[in-house]
Amino acid sequence: MKTLLSERELSEGVDRLSRAIADRWDSRPMTIVGVLTGCIVFLADLIRRLDVPLRVYLVQASSYRNGTTRGELTIDVDLGPEVQGRDVLLIDDIFDTGHTLVRVLAELKKYRPASIHSAVLLYKEGRQEVDFEPEFIAFRIPNRFVVGYGLDYRDEYRNLPYLAVLEPEDLNPRAGAGDGADG
Ligand code: IMP
Ligand code: MG
After folding, report:
1. Which of 29, 88, 102, 177 is most buried, by CB atoms within 10 Å?
2. Cα–Cα distance for residue pair 37/91, rounded to 1 Å
């Protein structure tokens, strides 16, 4: 595995992102909605840098994956009163094809938030299949499969404090094992 973003680079990127968000946010209360599971580390670091009143909710969006290939997407959103009339910031780990974020946004909009913006840690260049861009992006990265800082390969590696590129020899075909819903 090769390090793509060090712990320090990640920290500086989240600093920059939190300042960009704060600059555009005034002091309105913020309703953060994080997309599980990949957002957890980014979310934990980001919210501690935001100095506005905020609430945090989590939704589960899972594509049934076989390793690095995208599969059917299921979303579990049940946040009516939490979202209605509020200023929402949707948080995800990575914007890849974009389908996950667009689907979750559409679900949240049904609850009629006052406003809704989105922030991602990573934006994978050249992969997008949707007509939408997140307002806040910490890093643009090349089209490689990455793990660490919350991101997984078959539910592993989320605990790495840095972001690493998974090399072909790290892709280990565990027949029948671990092919599950992840995010
Ligand atoms: P999208 O719907 O294609 O934008 O995919 C978004 C989701 O796929 C992310 O929230 C991640 O859970 C997962 N994903 C996409 N690319 C990667 C990657 O390089 N490493 C780990 N997970 C990824
Ligand atoms: Mg995810």
Report:
1. 88
2. 11
Q: How many CB atoms lie within 10 A of CB 73?
A: 16
DSSP 151: B
CA pseudo-torsion sign 109, 111, 112, 116: negative
Q: Which residues of 118-157 are buried (b: 16+ CB within 10 A; e: fewer)?
A: bbbbbbbeeebeeeeebebbbbebeeebbbbbbbbbbeeb
User: What is the pLDDT, as a whole number, of residue 173?
Assistant: 63
CB 116 within 8 A of CB 109: yes
Beta bridge partners of 74: 62
Question: Which residue's CA is minimally distant from atom 15 of ligand 1?
Answer: 96
Rounded Cα distance, 126 and 136, in Å? 17
Q: Is 34 in the pocket of ligand 1 (CB under 6 A)?
A: no
Q: Rounded CA gap, 61 and 37, in Å?
A: 8
Q: What is the pLDDT of residue 78?
A: 83
Give the position, in ligand 1's atom list, of the atom nearest the Cα of 152.
21
Q: Is the CB of 103 under 6 A from ligand 1?
A: no
Fold category of 2-170 in CATH = Rossmann fold (3.40.50)
